[in-house]
Design brief:
Length: 100
């Protein structure tokens, strides 16, 4: 896999109430990823960027919500893809420690 592509696959960590509870109970981390990213690319990108061992990757396509109207036009939030990355026992990603 192209190293430049791997650096672009992960868009951002997805921080929400559900992702935090899943992370605490199942040793998983949730990321927003490119819409055309594949599971092997996501796994390779996480292992390369964070130096952890990945056990499994599950992906979900989230459809953007339709929000209030402005005149005749209905507003719409963008659709995105997120990945639930299961880490092997003993591996963890600390986003707070990386900000230094």
């Amino acid at each position: 896999m192209n190293e430049e592509r791997l650096l672009k696959v992960l868009v951002s960590p997805h921080i929400s109430e559900k992702s935090v509870s899943v992370g605490d109970s199942n040793n998983q981390v949730v990321f927003k990823v490119l819409k055309d990213a594949t599971k092997p690319e996501i796994k390779a990108a996480v292992e390369k960027m964070f130096e952890v061992q990945v056990e499994n990757v599950a992906v979900v396509n989230k459809k953007g919500k339709t929000k209030g109207t402005t005149g005749r036009n209905a507003g719409r939030r963008p659709s995105f893809k997120k990945a639930y990355v299961s880490l092997k026992e003993g591996s963890q990603i600390d986003f707070m420690g990386m900000a230094e």
